[in-house]
Amino acid sequence: MSKNKMIRTVAVMMLWGVATVMVTPISAAAPAAEGGADFYTPPTPLPPGAPGDVIRTEPSVDAIIPGTGAVVDARVTRVMYRSENVADEPVAVTGTLLVPNLPWAGQGPRPLVAFAPGTQGLGDQCAPSKLMTYGQEYENLQVGPLLAAGYSVAMTDYVGLGTPGTHTYLNRVDGGRALLNMARAARSMNSEDVTPASPLALWGYSQGGQAAGAAAELASTYAPELEFAGAFAGSPAPDLTDLADYGDRSILSGGIGWVVSGLIAAYPEHDTALLSIFNDAGREILARSQNYCVFDAVRMSPFGTTTDYTRDGRSISEYMNTEPLSSLVAAQRLGTLKPAMPVFVGQNLGDDIVAARGTERLEREWCEMGVPVQSANLAVPQILPKTGLGHVIGFVTAVPALQWLKDRFDGAVATSNC
Q1: What is the distance between the alpha carbons of residues 155 and 61, in angstroms, rounded to a whole number?
Q2: Which of 23, 156, 384, 390 could form a disulfide bond with 350, CB atoms 3.0-4.6 angstroms apart?
Q3: Does the structural domain 240-330 have CATH classification 1.10.260.130?
Q4: Where are the domains of the chain?
Q5: Which tens digits make up the pLDDT trace of 199-226?
Q6: Cβ contacts of 22 within 8 Å, gap of 6 or more
């Protein structure tokens, strides 16, 4: 197969697969993955240890590529490991290590990609380590090409997703640390193909792009012993104020419940102030959102307006300028720290969920810090605005990112097109 044909095939597979699973609702009663709930219940108290220490592992059932029924050709292991939240408290996080059955044909040890998934929702049944085993984890469409390239993949479930507590959705520190500690955990699991010598990279799109970008910014101080060849941060939602603007009246308008619930989980001291913004309808959205996955967005008042959820009729975008929301949102902003690695940023300029202006701002700021930034923005205009189609189209930027990542692992010097 020619290189161009392969690129077209991967791109079509990703878009078609994402479109397929986007219309497949996942109920709160979705079947439990192998190992059941017990695997996801951490020991109390947590055993002593350091961030990235493995708490437990177990073999997982096969990971299935959505929309195809095809099984990922890899050895799949579920893992629970130690991480730290934004309050510097130890927390147990789960994830998945996938090691290809394909022999590694490159130079040196097989590389490991620490993978941050996109938006999953807040329900514990939405954890990627659960969804991938019954064919409803859309990120397997990105994991598949990474495995086919010969890389091992370590995917985090994030803080509070699958495990007790509420997922701290889009929290920059929680997401970045969970990803870095997933890399630490994977390299300590005594797999014959994943060792402390495995070259590392970060990868994520959407919420995953934010977590990968955050991990890239935090790595030099939080995990200085880890050396990363590079990071792919696709459509990384670098500013939640833009997300509030674009999300209003969109298919994901009910996702405000995920954002606010995530903020309350990360900053419980602001619980009363944040809840005081909402009327009964808004609080009902917050309550419902905690049981839903991203594919349940059609059950979360899609295309609604956040003015219907607030006590005084102001939009959530307007509240972003008031305390405590303004400070909490500012704390999630990417672009204030310098990544200690080259970064590939991909964004569809017609993205109708994550504003391109924020990503372009992030690219400029990283460039001004001297970071080698390779930008691959698509100029696809918005089609059916507010439906999320423009955001899904941006997944195609992962295709050139694959070649860029190969060049990083091959030792090629990273260039910038700032």
Answers
A1: 15
A2: 390
A3: yes
A4: 3-239+338-409, 240-330
A5: 999 999 999 999 999 999 999 999 999 9
A6: 138, 295, 388, 392
